[in-house]
Amino acid sequence: MNVASIPLLTADLPGCGGSFKTVPEDFEVEEVPAYDPCGEGQHLFLWVEKRGRGTPEVAKQLARHFQVPEREVSYAGMKDRQAVTRQLFCLPAKAEALAASFSDADVKLLWWKRHRNKLKSGHLRANRFGVRLRGVRDAAAANAVLARLGAVGVPNAFGDQRFGAADDNADFGKRLLLGQKLPRAPDRFQRRLYLSAYQSLLFNRALAARLAEGTLAKALAGDVLKKHQTGGEFVCEDPAVDQPRVDAFEVSPAGPMFGPKMTAAAQGVALAEEQILREEHLTLEVFERGRGETEGARRSYRVPLENALAVPDGADLKLSFTLPKGSYATQVLRELCR
């Protein structure tokens, strides 16, 4: 599903307009790590600032400089290419002697420190964003939009970048599940990306339906509700009991990342999710073919917007806000800019 076709949560409010990512400095992202390195151990954490580079590209560059196999370079999350970003990378501590000699105008090692455990995907708490919107038409409108998102939550859609520049990642993922050949045999990274993109596409369809129905922040009988603090899940049996927890942002309805280990919904919610698969001429069992890459999970339909601030700067607007890991700042900007 094209992200532009997902209904806006703030459609009844005026947007502020403006454009972003005119230059990389217009879009800054900084990871909030899940933990700090302890200073000893067999792994080396690197705090890296990059400009105009993708995360996998920087990982390959680090592998070359530090003379380690690319598979031994890890990171917690993918960061935008057209941006200035700061994030952790990890590689074997034996390469520490080469850290001081690393030099690149667009990739800087701000510090490095040892740790006992390897950094793995998802090992971060959140991301802080700083965004300059250029040429806004109504700076005051941004505050009303941010207030709505802060109260109700940000629709947790997967952004367009998930689906590739040619918008074919999800199609490739479906073809992999069906055992069909692709134009080029994917490597391990591409295979995982394509399969995840297809799951993401189906999630976006389920999210779009909730937004269209006005039930983004409503507990429905049969919903899988996810706890924001712990990630725990349970099925809603009585909406009257669970709705106060939704209102308090303790839990949220969670949509399908289809796969055999996904917590099953019930009642009408389950029927709606089954309809998504029927429209694709698939059953849940087909995701078993993706093995460990499509085990399935639940993703919250909304996420909290924290520390949101909009400050006028001439004809521009300087934004700052924090989102949980795995969420897309472009969904906030879409609600603002229209």
SSE diagram, text form:
Blueprint: E1 27-33, E2 43-51, H1 55-66, E3 74-75, E4 84-92, E5 107-115, E6 124-133, H2 141-152, E7 154-155, H3 169-177, H4 188-213, E8 224-227, E9 233-235, H5 239-247, E10 251-257, H6 267-279, E11 297-300, E12 302-303, E13 306-313, E14 316-324, H7 329-337
Helix pairs in contact: 3-4
Quickly list its features.
single chain, Pseudouridine synthase, eight-stranded mixed β-sheet, four-stranded antiparallel β-sheet, 14 strands, 25% strand
User: How much β-strand is present in the residues?
Assistant: 25-35%
Give the low-pLDDT segments. Answer: none
Main sheet makeup: 8 strands, mixed
Mean of pLDDT:
96
Structural class: alpha+beta
CATH topology of the largest domain: Pseudouridine synthase
Counted up, domains total: 2
> N-to-C SSE series?
EEHEEEEHEHHEEHEHEEEEH
- Helix tally? 7
Return the CATH class of the largest domain.
Answer: Alpha Beta
First-last Cα distance: 18 Å
What is the CATH homologous superfamily assignment of the largest domain?
A: TruD, catalytic domain
